[in-house]
Design brief:
Structural class: alpha/beta
Number of strands: 23
Number of domains: 2
CATH class of the largest domain: Alpha Beta
Strand order of the largest sheet: 1-23-2-20-19-3-6-8-7-18
Helix content: 25-40%
Radius of gyration: 29 Å
Shape: globular
Distance between the termini: 57 Å
CATH topology of the largest domain: Rossmann fold
Number of helices: 12
CATH superfamily of the largest domain: Vaccinia Virus protein VP39
Strand content: 15-25%
Length: 460
């Protein structure tokens, strides 16, 4: 029967279809239901997934250092077990899922690669992602966030999917990442040098990202100095008069040193106003934060904006929110991976700097970081380097399959060498003395058996 041939349906069947349509959502992301259930999901209907430790791959250096986890197996099974052991315990999730470009050997679904000619390509990808993101949401702390790398093929669908799962109100940012430069563009019409990274919070009200400290010492606009330079640093002049949110209380007469009356914008009324109120201006004059200058017989009044103090003379680090336009090149990721592991599987692994950027948005040095598309192991490498830089105790959990032996020969090899130290092409990299446990997914054949095996599996 074709999709539009309903002539053989009974009245009851047709009524049920109508009722189903009435109950269906009228707005949102819709995709075709699976024609063939995903095998890894069907497997757990009668079996309980568990993790079994491979003890001869354990690396132990110090009881006082973090113990990181590497899980070999399908990530749906890994996430199912983690929902028993780590629900509400993850601060940061970063994933780099298949981009679903339709290219050969990219997105594997039910043991077959999905190519560009598959009419259900997008629906399969959405079903695949929906199941995993729902499990991942449960793992996040209420103050946690997830970061997902993606490109133009699925960015629109992924954002709608995340809005459905995490809530539109928990959208944080769509980062735009410059990922390459120069030749080798993959578009015949426009040179595409960017991809994206979506960020959603578990609960936006509880998420608090760190801010970027500004390098004011190297900022050339701070070029003037006065008697306060030792404490306040250098300064630049900022016009007290500005065109912004108008307020009558900020629109008043200022008297210049020679008695001339000055008004914001040269007159009373919108759109100009002063940046400071009268009491603060009086304080600023008394404490040498205000400069009057006369040019072409016209007076101007300026604020001294100092390097190391705020406008109440309090010491502070100048900070701004991180920007959503970022640059971390794939070429850097390839170089970083190939310096540690000889491999030919990963052509464009994500650079360490991208994951460090996500890590640095969290002020705590003891966060737990999950990557359930771990692949080349960049996330693990980034967490280790972050800990090395500031003596942090962040922990990573990496989940990846072992297709083409990637978990054993790339992921495990990479993180174990970084932990134990390795000789790179140009220098010797010292050990980062932390610990690692290696697990494989498996099953309890009888779903009614108790879950003791997975409930204690992560104790360290």
């Amino acid at each position: 029967m074709s999709k539009s041939d309903y002539s053989n349906l009974s009245k009851e069947q047709l009524l049920e279809m109508i009722h189903h349509l009435d109950r269906s959502r009228k707005y949102g992301l819709v995709w075709e239901e699976e024609k063939e259930p995903e095998k890894v999901v069907a497997e757990i209907q009668d079996k309980v997934p568990v993790l079994r430790e491979i003890q001869d791959r354990e690396i132990f250096n110090s009881a006082g250092q973090p113990t990181h986890l590497l899980i070999e197996g399908d990530n749906f099974h890994s996430l199912t077990v983690l929902n028993q052991t780590h629900q509400g315990k993850i601060d940061l999730i970063y994933i780099d899922p298949p981009y679903n470009t339709g290219k050969e050997n990219e997105f594997l679904y039910n043991d077959r690669y999905v190519d560009i000619n598959d009419g259900y390509r997008h629906s399969k990808w959405l079903s695949f992602m929906w199941k995993r993101l729902n499990l991942a949401k449960n793992l996040l702390k209420s103050s946690g966030a997830i970061f997902i790398s993606i490109d133009d093929n699925e960015i629109a669908q992924l954002k709608l999917l995340c809005q459905e799962i995490f809530g539109e109100e928990n959208f944080i940012a769509q980062f735009v990442r410059k990922n390459k430069a120069g030749s080798g563009h993959d578009s015949g019409q426009v040179a595409v040098e960017f991809d994206y990274m979506l960020c959603f919070a578990k609960n936006k009200a509880e998420l608090k990202f760190a801010k970027e400290k500004l390098d004011v010492e190297s900022d050339k606009k701070y070029r003037l100095s006065d008697a306060h330079v030792e404490f306040r640093g250098k300064y630049y002049l900022r016009d007290l008069d500005y065109r912004g949110s108008y307020s009558e209380s900020m629109d008043y007469v200022i008297t210049a040193p020679d008695g001339t009356e000055m008004r914001s914008g040269g007159k009373f009324g919108k759109p100009n106003t002063w940046r400071w109120n009268q009491d603060k201006l009086k304080w600023g004059i008394e404490n040498d934060f205000i400069v009057f200058k006369k040019t072409n017989k016209q007076w101007k009044v300026y604020i001294k904006q100092y390097q190391f103090v705020d406008n109440l003379n309090r010491r502070r680090d100048r900070q701004l929110p991180y920007r959503a336009l970022i640059q971390f090149l794939n070429s850097e990721g390839s170089q970083e991976l190939n310096e540690v592991v000889e491999q030919s599987i990963f052509k464009f692994p994500k650079p360490i700097g991208l994951i460090r950027f996500c890590i640095d948005l969290f002020e705590s040095k003891e966060i737990t970081v999950l990557d359930f598309f771990a692949g080349s192991g960049t996330t693990g490498h980034a967490v280790l380097k972050a800990n090395e830089a500031d003596s942090g105790k962040r922990q990573f959990i990496l989940c990846t399959n072992n297709e083409n032996n990637i978990c054993e020969e790339v992921t495990y090899t990479r993180v174990s060498k970084v932990i134990q130290g390795y000789q790179g092409p140009k220098k010797l990299h010292a050990p980062i003395a932390q610990n690692l446990k290696y697990f494989k997914t498996g099953f309890l054949e009888n779903a009614k058996e108790n879950h003791q095996e997975e409930s204690h599996i992560f104790e360290s």
